[in-house]
Amino acid sequence: MKILIVEDQEVTRLVLTTHFRNWGHQVAEAGDGLEALNFLDQGGEADLIVTDWGLPHLDGLELTRRVRERETGRGRSTYIILLTAHGEIDVQDLAPASGGVDDYLLKPFEGADLRRRLKLAERLIVAERNPHPDRRDWEDLLQERTAELWNAQSEIVRRLFQSLSVRDQETDGHLRRLAFFSARLGGYLGWSGEDCQILAVAAPLHDLGKAGWPAGFWCEPKPLSAEEFKIVQTHTTEGAALLAGSSHPSIQWAERIALRHHENWDGSGYPDGLRGEAIPREARVVAVVDVYDAMMADRAYRPGWPEEQVLDFIKSECGRKFDPDIGRLFLDRIGEIRWDPCFPGQP
Prior knowledge:
Layout: E1 2-6, H1 10-22, E2 26-30, H2 33-41, E3 48-52, H3 60-71, E4 79-85, H4 91-98, E5 103-107, H5 111-129, H6 135-152, H7 154-164, H8 172-188, H9 193-202, H10 226-243, H11 249-260, H12 281-295, H13 307-317, H14 324-332, H15 334-338
Parallel strand pairs: 1-2, 1-3, 3-4, 4-5
């Protein structure tokens, strides 16, 4: 495969060139976007372009835009990977701004991560240029893409269950149901499969801010005092602070969920009294599902509620505590949302 590396930092360019040549690819180099365009204008070819975002003269996004303009009507496209540092990217906003970027890689990167992305690029290039791709190739590619997403987030998932499943209020079963039910509700709301998968990873982190509390905090056989409730409210900001600064979409979602899942539709919630659609949609979904599952569980200070009573409560809170559209859809589809053979004993 012919690869063009566009990078103004010599050390990074050397690392990339060495890796790609060791893996059997032809490599050309450019120090900035204008040099890269000049290479292509003079007949240089590239199946893959790996470009830094912050280039002098012509940055990576503008380079990508111009490459895409050149390809119009040619029936053949170049796969483009954007390199960027952690501090300069908001992954959720990258796609609409990228103007044709196919993938991104954060610096500093590991050789193994670079090679995984290279293999994915190779398979996509072959599939795109083969007019009659085998269906199995596409299915394998989809599975590989899905695995990439989950592998990138596996560490945070492990930490999640290690830190929260030991708490009385956050049992392993509750967290797993929260992930499953939230993702299923997102599907009924018309979200994409990828968004539902991200939500399944992010939702169980909603109460991460409680992880540092004393283990017996929830074991008192009485409701919380006003002072204790003020402490409880800090778990939203503390959880968000623990999750802040990540470049992975699932952890960015988790940060917003942790911070906003106690905001109420009518503005009466905390920590900031947001109202309506100012509350992130993922937090509005988790708010409904969390109340549904948590209120049926026994607590030291109260027995669990029957499901019918919980559903009546959710119905009464639509438009006040909960997004009315999400709440009503949840109530309409509860039989499908809660049912799964992986969760025996569910109501």
